[in-house]
Amino acid sequence: MALYKYRNFLTRLSSINYKNYSATATDVRIVEVGPRDGLQNETVIVPTDVKVEFINRLSETGLKTIEATSFVSAKWVPQMSDNTQVYSRINKVPSISYPVLIPNVKGLESALSVGAKEIAVFASASEGFARKNTNCTIEEGLQRIKDVVDLAKKRDLKIRGYISCIVGCPYDGYIKPSVVAKITETLLDFGCYEISLGDTIGVGTINTMKDLLKNVLTVTSPAKLAIHCHDTYGQALVNVCTALDFGIKVADSSVSGLGGCPYAKGATGNVATEDLVYLLNGLGVNTGVDLNRLIEVGQFISEALKKPTSSKVNKALYKNLKPV
Ligand SMILES: CC(C)(COP(=O)([O-])OP(=O)([O-])OC[C@H]1O[C@@H](n2cnc3c(N)ncnc32)[C@H](O)[C@@H]1OP(=O)([O-])[O-])[C@@H](O)C(=O)NCCC(=O)NCCSC(=O)C[C@@](C)(O)CC(=O)[O-]
Predict the structure, then answer these.
(1) Residue closest by Cα to atom 20 of ligand 1
(2) Residues contacting residue 234 through CB under 8 Å, at least 6 positions apart
(3) Domains of the chain and any CATH numbers
(4) What sequence ranges are listed for the domain Pyruvate carboxyltransferase (predicted)?
(5) Which among 316, 319, 238, 228 is positioned nearest to 14, based on CA atoms?
(6) Is residue 165 annotated as a catalytic residue, yes or no?
(7) Residue 106 C-alpha to ligand 1 middle, in angstroms?
(8) What is the reported pTM?
(9) What is the ipTM of this complex?
(10) What confidence tens digit (pLDDT) does each residue in 234-257 have?
(11) What whole-number distance in Å separates Cα of residue 309 and Cα of residue 44?
């Protein structure tokens, strides 16, 4: 009991608002992508029961958006082949959105068959990644997305858009911000309500992020953007802070730092949700997420995967539960 109290004390410490910090957000919505972006990259196939329990536990943490699965080809990503079972079986809390990732109309039709209400479509800012990830060019990918979006709109679905490789690509190297700005505009014109800017291989720095965001904000407002940072180079949290300074109030993350893209070799997971919540608590930014509960879910999935958590905050706070 004393150890729980000590951990509560530590988590409260993260909530002290140091007023001199420059980030301007007062509320941030976290989009939890662990069940999709996280588990798609695991070498083991996680049993459906575990995925369902994972998502149900995440639903009890205060998160408002949890990306549940993807309806991509099982030949390409076998880890997500139980998409219909996962989506059908999770407890869908009415106040929580459970978007699913969709590559084409075939995927959308499967998602509709199990009652999906929100989808996420994904484009690439680099030709090399478009080819490796979706077997088509950027333009062909955008046409596929348009077909998906047109049908999804007829069915009154909410549609989120992703752009991968916003600053760098494992195949093509540096990506021009103007390319990302153009694709952002296109996806918004199609009907996406929000574009999540993905630093797929985590190479972004404060300066490259600033360059990128200045460009993208010539075509839209911060209210239409989200930031999606992988932590390969340990820059994810500072890149999120840069996005907050530009007025962006939605950040994607993955509990326990799970994740990566099977078609971006060497890229590690997303910024850990625990680390992001700790950062935002410290900024006095409200997320509505209970850090203690999140830590328990991070431990649950790490144990299921038989690997240690990649979240520094989880490691630091969870060990205080263990007998010394
Ligand atoms: C786009 C395709 C389908 C093209 O794949 P393809 O091989 O060019 O397409 P195809 O139409 O020839 O289909 C091949 C087979 O897959 C089937 N198929 C086709 N579509 C579907 C579907 N929806 N659901 C189930 N099955 C499907 C299709 O029926 C066929 O089966 P067969 O006739 O050979 O038996 C493939 O390349 C694909 O699925 N790619 C997805 C790869 C992926 O999931 N990557 C990870 C997600 S993106 C990401 O992680 C980045 C992000 C979003 O997090 C942001 C960031 O960090 O950057």
Answers:
(1) 73
(2) none
(3) 24-321 (3.20.20.70)
(4) 28-295
(5) 316
(6) no
(7) 10
(8) 0.93
(9) 0.98
(10) 999 999 999 999 999 999 999 999
(11) 16
